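Narrative of activities, Objective 1.

The group set out to show that a structural description can be obtained from nothing but a protein's sequence at a throughput compatible with the screening campaign. Below is one input-output pair from the validation batch, recorded exactly as produced.
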Amino acid sequence: MIRRSIFTCCILLIVLCLRAHASVWQQKTDYIITVTLDTATHAIEGKEWLTYYNESSGALKEVYFHLYWNAFQPGSFMEQHMRQTGTNVLADAIAALKPDEIGSVKIGSVLYNGTAIPFEITGTIMRVSLPQPVATGVPAEFEITFVSHVPRFIRRAGYMSTDSVEYSIAQWYPKMCAYDEHGWHNDQYLGREFYGEYGRFNVNITAPRDYVIGATGMMSQARSAGCGYELLNDTLLMNPASDVLYDEHGKRADTLPTRIWKFEAQDVHDFAWAADRQFVHEITHIGKMTLHLLYKKKSANEWKFADSDAVKILQYYGSQYGKYPYSQFTVVEAGDLGMEYPQIVFLRGVPAVATLAHEIAHQWFYGLLGSNETAEAWLDEGFTTYASGQAMKALFKTPPPPRNWLQIILAPPDNPYPDQSLFCLGLAVTGMDEPVLQHSDAFRENATYNEVYDKTRIILTMLQYTVGDSVFKKILSEYTRQMWLKHPTTEDFIRISEEVSGMQLRWFFHEWLLTTDACDYAVSGLSSTPDSAGYLTTLSVEQRGKIVMPLDVQLTYADGTRQTALIPIGWRAKNVPGAIVLPQMPLFVSSYSAQFETPKQVASVYIDTSFRIADVNRLNNTSGFFPPMRFGFLTQYQTNSPLDDYAISVAPRIWYAQQQGTKIGLSLDGSYAFSEYISHADFYFNTLNRTADWNLSYRTPVAPMLDVYGSASQEYGIRSVEIGAEKTFRPMLASPARQTLSFRVQYTDLPQNIYPFYNLLWSNGELNTAKLSYSCIYTGRTHWQFNAEYEGSLTKQTGFVRTKLEGSGTLPVSSVFDFSMRAIAGTSAERCLCKKCFTLPAPAPKTSSRIPCIATSPESASRRTCRGISFFPAAAA
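Output recorded for this entry:
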């Protein structure tokens, strides 16, 4: 029995060792690429020599290559995926590519260890079956001839981008797919992220001599290419291509029509470059590193601070996450709004400092920590978003400019919550949220894929909140140290976080990365009574969302002083000097209560005054019966809505009605941040008949995409009460179609016949009705709307039934001319009151007025039917 136990333990130890080894090995690739750029045909033709080092424990019988530019063809997988995810603008651009504008990577031949072998291409992936497997530890040699046709610029790469940068060249060569303990990562390129092996690149590019190139890596023969790369001093060259040209032997070669650019890069997993005839070359030396800026001459004024900004940002990241290890870095005007590649970033147009900070941060979280962006994009884009946000605070934070009295009244408030995202919190409230940790191509749409950026920033901020600022800084430092030039995974970051903090944190990562649950804590009770030791304080907290978090609770004493109380998850709390540490709050328990001694009476409490927890409702984070409120005169709370207060905008109103004279009043509009608890109140005094009118309404979601509402009013002699519910059907945020189904019940009392707008006979008395409505709105290149209503009386005394169908649309005929149309039809039957009779629109298709078909009183009304139909086309320039 003892021998069997020892044997079992040995087997387990061997398995654990093997698993540990499997998590540390990684493949290596060395590329030598020689190509020629043909600017007449937009083609890059050449040859690639690849040395592949198999460091895995098994032989490889086949290998795979990425041919990314095959995605830029009509009908490609990328076009299909973009339509599926609502990115129709890019999908339409791909579909519209002409034969001479499409992208492609055409393979001429593949040699394996000197022997020609067949290959198979599907979409953006080339599969190569090997006659002899690639053995462990034995380098394999591949030689590939290829022609890459540069696509017209659509996304990330191409010729003639929207800012007229001639060539943005990325993902352009046959690139070996990554292979790790999970197998081959041979995903089709659908437009999002990448994953590659580290290695060495030697790239030789022959291009027309009047082109200037910026690329990954250092120039190996800088003098032969010139254009400023040979200079050792800080320099600004407005016409770098006009210099003296030398051949490879150092002799003048002014008559040569081309230049040969030779770049070398070590320990990188990709190679990108850009070329243009109008590039300015700005060179700045930072110790042993050279910073190259290449931008269009017309952009010189917008780029004048880019060099100093880039230097500050590089130095900041180096102090936080490890020194930048390469001898050069290039910022080039090219590509999309912003895109990262090893040792080079593409920026389009004016280089916004926030975009520059984001793309440079990728040199660490992508370049030096080469995670699998495709499968775990949060480790790349999310960490970068967090890091760039911290850089912006540290380097470029400026207080908002002072406001004059008019701006204070009319302008939206500044955003006081830099650690939160109203967009991500809003997705959680509406139920449109998606888990962050999933394959980047599996996201429902681009709008929710953006959570990889912003929600991850919030998650890291909450991890910092959970473990403490100093511990979190150590976690990031240790993470970058251990994973330098490796392929870190989510599991690596969890492991390092737990090792450094000494806390169990798997619950934290599970709920924030793998679920779409919301966090909502509420203070449910507070008492503080004197006792022999001071005051016995009882604090009760209720968990109204599914996500749990440790809580920092601010105690405000009766004398105005404050102290922090910590409610930890688990046995270990973070270190906060002077804080009261309360008993732990267990996971999966919705209510919590703790009694503790305080030196003074606690008057109020507030959960998370740092605003770092992604709490979807902060109105209940404080003690007290009424939620905290904020009033503003004419304030636009729709933008940067407060998270900690119920915002109420107050505005004066003045109106004139024939039967009531001048109406002077006040309007109040209240709401919480995510279109919740929407209230409206109008109060008017009628100067002619000295009466008062009022209107009250309230609307709030009770479930994702399900609102309830109610209203009560007395206006123009009409008293009305209404309650209802509305369900919205919207499969995607970017979906062009949105459908709503609503039901409401209304009570109306007509005590006076003083309706001001039309000289019509209104019937005094009461009316109870129910109404079912359906609406479908399509917003795309064209705009269409369809409405259907069914309404009927709930009482026999005023029985009637009304139906209405309405459709409208706008069709763009040209860039300056639209054709609009509107059609309406309906019926009403039984004892029709004038207000409830079917009405026709006015001739203008975008306005309407109530033109009754029947005007009767209940006393004289008989059973009758009214039908109407109308069609109004219109054109507008």
